[in-house]
Every structure is written in C-alpha cells, then in structure tokens.
Description:
The protein contains 3 helices and 3 strands. It has one domain. By secondary structure, the protein is of the alpha+beta class. It has a 3-stranded antiparallel β-sheet with strand order 1-2-3, with no helix packed on it.
Amino acid sequence: MQTINLNIDDSLLNQAIQHWKNFLSQHQKESVNFTYVDDIGDTIQVINGIEYVVPTKEDKKAFNTPKKNQDFTSLDSLKSELS
C-alpha cells in the first residue's frame, strides 16, 4: 500500500469544512450526524447540528486523575511570580 501526503492550505480546509456544514444545514433531515477531525487533531462529533469534542484516552485519564492543591495557583501568586 502506498501512502500519499497532500499539503492543503488551512484556509482551503476550513472552507471545505464550512461548505459541508452549510450544505448539511440546508439539507438537514430530522437528525444529521457526522464526525470530523479539526485542525488541531481533535475528533469532533456533530449531533443534530451541535458539535461535541470526543475525549481521547489521555483526556479521560487526565479527568480522572486526582488533583492536588499544588496543581493550581492563585491569581495573586501568579501576579507575584510575573512581577
């Protein structure tokens, strides 16, 4: 199997995605569902015209990891570090 890599300008890709969204909204049946991958690699699932980001395994692991107070900073401590 041969792999072909195409370099497509981001603006053209965004125009194509927008075209598909417009096309589907104009020809929408009761429920139109589809999935696409956005420019940063996230999988987006569109259900009845609403976009949802599908979490990856890494996202789910991060959500379930207990957080500690040291994982966060207050606005005051951030300001003092930047001063």
